[in-house]
Amino acid sequence: LQCPVVADLTSCDIEPIHAPGAIQPYGVLIVADAKTLHVTHVSENFASSSGLRNEDAIGAALSAVIGVEPTAMLQAALSSERHSVASVMTLDLGFHRSPCRDVVVQAHAGHVFLELEIGHHPIDRHKAVSNIQSVIAELPRQTSVAEIADRTVAAVRRVTGYDRVMVYRFDAEGHGEVVAEDKRADLEPLLHYRYPASDIPAQARKLYLTQRIRIIADTDYQPVKLLTGEQAFASEALDMSYCTLRRVSPLHLEYLRNMGVGGTLAISLIHDEALWGMVVCHHQTPHSVPADVAAMCDLVGQIVALLIQQAEEREALGRTVERQAILAGIKGAVDRAPSILAGLGSVHPAMVDLMDAGGVALRLSGCVHLFGATPSATMVDLIFDDVEAVALGEVFAEDSFGRRRLDWVDLADLASGVLYLPLLNNPHDAIIWFRPQVVRTIVWGGDPGKPAADPDGRISPRKSFARWLELVRGTSLPWTRTQIRAAHDLRRVVTDGMLRHAEASLARLS
Ligand code: BLA
């Protein structure tokens, strides 16, 4: 199935990219049955590399095709490795044309895959290995996610020689942001650009959990067909999920060419079995790395993902401690003040900070009090009623309120996100925090008003950035679980305060 180039943005979710029936031409693929070790498939360029006929190879014993000794070596490798772990081996296959340098061997779904590299790499492998060693040794252990990402892009660029290396991070909705970049000085920066989830469709994300590393050696390549059967007919059924040479989606190639990219390397960063992000490398001209360097990049990716996970846990803990300190300050103010309103009002910047909000509104005994960036009092009164009706007495957080209420003029700008905390004393008393639209919040990576680099309307990162802006109009950054927990904690502070004030008033009366 070919994706239409002017695509409906969801239509590419169904492209079966794991079984494209073709490979990229920088290598040769031989597939054998895992049990019998008879060849089931070869890529069409097998003949020109080996000097054998494709028809003769298909159905033959692997040992007759690549030699007895290499077959024994790969059998040993496969029996000692976990089945889906790729091993990179140097095998002398005795092919009289195109001597093969590296062979990536792995077994998957009843087949053994041999990916033979052809061609030369401009990379000095010994230097690459010692570079990788120093990269792993130097990766910072006790630092922020931002610092780890910065060090990673610099290191991967040094090792692989790509023109641009980025760390691309996904948010909860699957939209992405370039959070670190190291590049050739003359290239336009993409740092802090954001892209919609549809730029990397769902099936591709799923695939990238198993195939952690991908090389597109030349975005302008002609795919090479995979052949099977006695007559060596084209085959599109084989699952190539683990195959590095797998033909890439033509739509993605178009995207890369429009961006002026000639070759890419992408490394998955995986957390808790989900794609946290990727290290994405671009080169203006065709470029790739040898299989062993790619395998080392995979290792770097796994280590970086672990370090990022630890850093995120440390950062979350730091934020919880910070939030508890803010909460303690608010509690002190409420306890000291003559009323809840005076107490909360005296620490309104802390109230706003507690939730990383733009502003906060209190509704106490029918009166609305506003602090920070909020819509008008009349509008806020309407919002209290609207949210109260759906919240049913519970804490309620919404990060697309501005979208749901697009008919409320100018609402989105200040109140795309709302966090509602009903207080317990009076049914209509409550607090609402407001968050601005995310498009106002982000740091612009470039001028979004600048015309896209592709006037003929083809897909490209600039177009994608504009599409992302459309997608997130009326939404705010999401409210986190820690913030919702903090809302419950604050409710306890306010309820205690109210009881104390009530007791004090009673005592004064008696
Ligand atoms: C794949 N899209 C990808 C990949 C990236 C991006 C990183 C992983 C493939 C790779 O290894 O290169 C997206 N690349 C980006 C973005 C930047 C970048 C956002 O450098 C920004 C700097 N792509 C589209 C649209 C569709 C689409 C509109 O933009 C479809 C409707 C499809 N992208 C698409 C497909 C793949 C993909 C099908 C999978 C390619 C494959 O592995 O076969």
Automatic annotation (TrEMBL):
Domain of life, source organism: Bacteria
GO molecular function, one term: photoreceptor activity
GO biological process: detection of visible light; regulation of DNA-templated transcription
Boundaries of every Phytochrome chromophore attachment site domain copy: 144-302
Protein keywords: Chromophore, Photoreceptor protein, Plasmid, Receptor, Sensory transduction
Keyword Isomerase among UniProt keywords: no
Record protein name field: EAL domain-containing protein
Species assigned in the record: Lichenicola cladoniae
